[in-house]
Amino acid sequence: MTKTSKKNLRRSTETSGSSKKTSADTEGRNAIHAAGLAVNRSDLTSAAKIREAVAHASDAAPAVESRSENKNWKTGDFTGMPIAIFQNWLYEQNREWRFTDGTLAVLWCLEFPNARCDYADRHRYVASTRTEYNAGRHQASPPEHPSIAYNRDGLPVIGTVTTSLSIRLTEQERKLIATAAELRDESPTRFIKSAAISQAAHVVNTSKETTFDFEGIAKKIATVLFAKPVLQDRNPIRGKDFFELRRAIHLGGTEFLKRVLEHGATHDFADEDLDEPIDPQTID
Question: Is 36 within the bounds of a domain?
Answer without folding.
Answer: yes
